[in-house]
Amino acid sequence: MKVLIHQTRETATECVAGLIVDRIARDPDVVLGLATGGTMEAVYDDLIARYRATGVSFAQAQSFNLDEYIGLTPDHPCSYWAYMREKFFHHVDFMPGRTHLPRGDAADPVVEAARYEAAIVAAGDIGLQLLGLGANGHIGFNEPTSSLSSLTRIKTLTQSTRDANARYFTSDDDVPRLAITMGIGTIMRAQDIVLLAFGANKSRIVAQMIEGPVSAACPASILQMHRNVTVVLDEEAASALALRDYYELVHPRVAAPAS
Ligand code: PGA
Asked: Chunked in runs of 10, what are the mean pLDDT values of the chain (259 residues)?
């Protein structure tokens, strides 16, 4: 694992956007794995700014999002379809039909999950997967105790995840209880993975993910088994790492950028 500790959220965000843009420059038809959540909003803002300023193009790329709530149509304002349209897709040049999310309103979510998994396989799997980190260690909606080799399927959300996401809904009861999510096995097939986490409330789980045992109790800890993972953190999210000095020794320019 490459652990990059930035002094601020802003430089951490720029770092992640830069990794995505560099990948597109090398590999224009890359299959991107995309994420939602509060942490990612600044990444999409940065990518939109680079698209406008530098003309980086998503026209040959395609994307698969990690997850979607069951029961919400793509038009529902709280759906991840709506999030992605508003915060990213409408502002850049992806070709129609090349941005994919599971359909939360599918008549049979089990069939939809299998279809989505097969579509990812048919696309050649994810080239660069972007991940956030749940305060409970989830990646996608793979909640604690998820099978570490799971494929895209239906998951029941934990109460802590529903509480964390209630801010997007009118009332707590409106937060869906089920989601379709890429599995941990699906995510682990990605060629490269970039995980971004900010803030003191993520510090404990960041330390478990990087330095704890590989365990379904912290699904993100499986990333220790992946060959090409970059974890991008701000100072607060890095604050519980036991080996922080070592990570900063390996990547000193991140820790203390030249002034
Ligand atoms: P957040 O969500 O970016 O809103 O903290 C991360 C996640 O749950 O994966």
From this structure: 97 98 98 98 98 96 98 97 98 97 98 98 98 98 98 97 95 96 98 98 98 98 98 98 97 70
CA–CA separation, 153 vs 165, rounded Å? 20
Its pTM stands at: 0.97
* CA-139 nearest atom, ligand 1: 9
Q: Which domain holds residue 241?
A: 2-250
**Per the domain annotation, does 203 fall within a domain?**
yes
Q: Is any ligand 1 atom within 6 A of the Cβ of residue 134?
A: yes
C-alpha 126/C-alpha 89 separation (Å) is 18
Inside any domain, residue 202: yes
Structurally, how many domains does the chain consist of? 1
Q: Which of 14, 68, 105, 143 is catalytic?
A: 143
Whether 154 is covered by a domain: the verdict is: yes
Instruction: Tell me which of 27, 41, 136, 211 is the catalytic residue.
Output: 136
